[in-house]
Each structure stands twice: as C-alpha cells, then as structure tokens.
Design a protein that fits this description.
The mean pLDDT is 94. This protein has helices at 29-44, 61-66, 71-95, 117-125, 143-154, 187-193, 200-208, 223-228; strands at residues 10-15, 48-53, 100-104, 113-114, 129-133, 158-163, 168-169, 181-182, 184-186, 213-217, 235-238. A nine-stranded mixed β-sheet has the order 4-3-5-2-1-6-10-11-9, sandwiched between helices. The protein contains eight helices and eleven strands. The N and C termini lie far apart (35 Å). α1 (29-44) crosses α3, α5 (143-154) runs parallel beside α7 (200-208) and α6 packs antiparallel against α7.
C-alpha cells in the first residue's frame, strides 16, 4: 500500500483555550495529552505544524471587561493565559517525544523564546512543532487574528481551526435544530452573514492572502491528520 501523501506541507492549527479544559476550567491533563497526540500524528507525517492557542479556559477578557476591568489590561491578562496553555501543550508533546518550541509575543526569556519569524520558520523546517503564545503582543487583537497573522508569516498552506462542532453552520447546531451546515463558503459570505468562524480582521487577512480556513471537530481523534491528508471533513472557507 503506497504511503499517504499529505495535502498540505505546512499548516497552522488554531486551538481555543476551552479545548484544554475538559469538563471544567483550567488545564485538563488528559485533554491536553489527546491534543498533543493528534499533533504528533501530523508531525510524523512530515508536515510542518505551527499552533496558536487561546486562553479562554483560564481568563475570559470580555467577561472581566464587562465587570469593569480595563480592556487593555484584560487583554494582557488573556495573553498570559495563552502562555500557560502553550507550556502545557509543549510538555505533553515532549512526553510523546515530539520536539517543540514555544515562542511568545511578549518577552519572557526564562520560559520561552521570543517570537522571531525566521527562527520560527527554521524550527518548522527542522520538524519541530512551534507553539505561538501571547497573541500578537498587543491588546485589542484576538488569537484568531494572531493565527491568521502567524500563518501568513510562516508560509502556512492553510489554517486548521479546531472546534467543538464538525464545521460551519448558519446557527449554533448545539442550540438550534435544523441549523444548516456549509461544506464550503467564501470569505465574503462569512463576513456578510456574520458567521462566527473567526473575527472579521482574521477573515480579511486570510482573504487578502488567499489562505484557506478549514473548520473541523477536534474532539474526534485523528481529525487533524484527516484534514492534512485531504479528507473532506468539516467546512472550508476560501475565495
């Protein structure tokens, strides 16, 4: 049987903070290990994989902003939460003997490398998983925008957006019976319909750089590998 040929040579995986939490808030060891195992499968296929992590399992900036916390302060606190998730993921990857590096947009030399584009690309060329933490390093930008920005910077072929559902719907399928699924949708239609795939800044950046976004269910083991190998699962956003 001939070896499977990946559809992409380099991808950026966007994982929300909630994916790390399991049934409760914080970092669930088993959930993190399961995510790491899927990433390891892709890395062993010879595909370069970078990861952007959220921090919503630890800190929800919008919630605290509504309670009176300054927006910029809330965003910086959220950036620090992403670093915790990145370190947890790195630890899980290293335990599976998958080499990895964490790069942060806010300098913290004792625990991670600063984000340097050329260094990140070099790590990817050497087969290391690169985990980008601390967002863009600026308030008012989401980790969705970080994912789009880093994907363009490192030359990724696609953004893989891991979620709790199996694609993009016109309404929340966990709340609305009969919600319509889009197997394929354009960037403009995502913006026009106000679909919460990624924020508008991220969608616009992907559109300007013709970078496809594939949305799929992370909770089904092996789905990251299936997407990379070209199986038709989830939903695709492209031109």
């Amino acid at each position: 049987m001939p070896p499977e040929t990946p559809r992409f040579s380099r991808v950026l995986l966007k994982i929300s903070g909630e994916a790390f939490s399991g049934e409760e808030t914080g970092v669930d060891v088993e959930m993190t290990r399961a995510i790491a195992a899927q990433i390891g499968e892709v890395s062993r296929c010879g595909v370069s994989i970078a990861v952007v992590v959220g921090g919503g399992n630890i800190w929800r900036g919008k919630v605290h902003e509504r309670a009176g916390v300054d927006r910029a302060t809330a965003d910086y606190m959220g950036m620090l939460a992403t670093v915790i998730n990145a370190l947890a993921l790195q630890d899980a990857l290293e335990r599976l003997e998958v080499p990895s590096r964490v790069q942060t947009a806010i300098a913290m030399h004792q625990i991670a490398e600063p984000y340097i584009r050329r260094r990140a690309i070099r790590h990817l060329e050497k087969g290391r998983v690169v985990i980008f933490a601390a967002g863009t390093g600026n308030p008012y930008f989401t980790t969705d925008t970080t994912a789009a920005l880093r994907a363009v910077e490192v030359g990724a072929d696609a953004i893989l957006k891991a979620t709790k559902v199996d694609g993009i719907y016109d309404a929340d399928p966990m709340k609305v019976d009969g919600a319509k699924k889009f197997n394929h949708i354009s960037y403009m239609d995502v913006l026009k319909l106000g679909l919460k795939v990624m924020d508008s800044t991220a969608i616009s950046l992907c559109k300007d750089n013709n970078l496809p976004i594939i949305v799929f269910n992370l909770n089904q083991h092996g789905n990251i590998r299936r997407v990379v190998l070209g199986e038709k699962i989830g939903s695709t956003v492209s031109a």
